[in-house]
Specification:
It is a single chain. The protein is α/β, with parallel strands linked by helices and 342 residues long. The protein has two domains: 165 residues, Rossmann fold (3-Layer(aba) Sandwich), CATH 3.40.50; 152 residues, 3-Layer(aba) Sandwich (Rossmann fold), CATH 3.40.50. Helix content is 37%, strand content 17%. The protein contains twelve helices and 13 strands. Strand 10, helix 10 and strand 11 form a beta-alpha-beta unit. Helix 2 crosses helix 12, helix 5 packs across helix 9 and helix 7 packs parallel to helix 8.
Length: 342
């Protein structure tokens, strides 16, 4: 196996510069947190393996151009919104992109850069994989190919160091909480799932009963997609427990919650949330919502088979497993491909 850390030296040598210089990496997305975290998390994982300078790039379209299919966005740089990042030379050595808005740029980047930029697209781009140097989709999408590197779930930014950094701001509130501390990550409405009031009531009662039976405390956070009615129902029931239910105001306590948690409960609607939770090495149990998705059923089956997550049956279960490190594995795969290309 090629040593990924050799990449900086080999790049510098091929560029004719004395000594190694950092890789220039662009993490490209539309700026929405769930999308950006995939590109940025993968770029940061590369930077942990080899010297690299990571730059965030946000690309957005407005009006009629945003509504066009990707195949018809022929001149994407002309129609960027004013708050978008410039997509201009000098081009990066490594382009890592996520989301639909990035696709018109990703499929042209090799031509624009004269083949010097290595183009990585996360998720399933729904374009021929040959248009990119590497595609990093979730395994549950079922995408395969010579330049496809499937991973369990999605890339993310969670690391033990980042979780520890998030702890001090909330230590005063969280440190006195009785154990076991239970982090509850609630998603919401999507194409496949929903959290109507009747399901929210059942979920609130099941979670509260399990925490009360264990003599523990709750640390709950909601997604922007969580319906307001469901949020009110869950908040009302869970506030009777020791703990903290985040109301969306002020700094986000997610990292501190994951750092402090003894157990993590996560709703079934988000591959991002499940992957982030299972990267901690803490027991993760998945909460049922209203709806059904064959792709997510495959994901949750995969997590169960790996021993990193289990369905929530009303009882807090405890077990040990090696944290899921798929973002790091994908970063190593990118650097191996870069070395082979050079």
């Amino acid at each position: 196996m090629t040593d990924p850390n050799a990449r900086a030296a080999s790049f510098a040598a091929s560029d004719g510069e004395p000594g190694a210089r950092p890789l220039r990496v662009w993490a490209v997305s539309d700026g929405r947190a769930g999308i950006e975290n995939q590109a940025l998390g993968l770029a940061e994982a590369v930077a942990r393996l080899t010297p690299a300078e990571v730059e965030r790039k946000h690309v957005r379209f407005s009006g009629f151009y945003n509504a066009l299919p990707t195949a018809l966005k022929l001149t994407p740089r002309r129609f960027l919104t004013r708050d978008s990042s410039p997509i201009e030379p000098p081009w990066p050595d490594l382009w890592i992109a996520a989301g639909r808005a990035s696709l018109p740029f990703s499929v042209r980047m090799r031509r624009w850069s004269g083949g010097k930029t290595f183009v990585v697209q996360t998720q399933d781009p729904r374009w021929p994989a040959e248009r990119f140097d590497l595609v990093v989709p979730p395994k549950h999408d079922g995408l395969t190919g010579d330049n496809v590197f499937p991973i369990t779930g999605s890339p993310h930014r969670i690391t033990p160091e980042r979780l520890a950094e998030g702890w001090p701001a909330f230590a005063t509130a969280l440190d006195p909480l009785p154990r076991p501390r239970v982090a509850l990550l609630v998603g919401g409405r999507s194409a496949a799932f929903d959290l109507p009031p009747e399901r929210a009531r059942v979920m609130a009662d099941e979670v509260a009963t399990a925490v009360e039976a264990a003599g523990g405390s709750i640390m709950a956070t909601f997604s922007r997609r969580t319906p307001e009615a469901a949020k009110a129902i869950l908040t009302g029931r869970l506030k009777a427990l020791p703990g903290l239910v985040w109301d969306g105001e002020g700094p986000n306590p997610l990292f501190a919650f994951l750092h402090a948690a003894d157990h993590i409960l996560v709703t079934e609607d988000s591959a991002n949330m499940a992957t982030e939770a299972t990267s901690t090495g803490k027991p993760v149990q998945v909460l049922t919502m209203a709806g059904e998705s064959p792709k997510f059923r495959r994901l949750h089956s995969e997590l169960r088979e790996l021993g990193v997550a289990r369905p929530f049956s009303g009882v807090l279960e405890t077990w040990e497993y090696a944290p899921l490190c798929e973002t790091e594995r994908a970063a190593e795969g990118i650097l191996r491909r870069l070395n082979r290309r050079d």
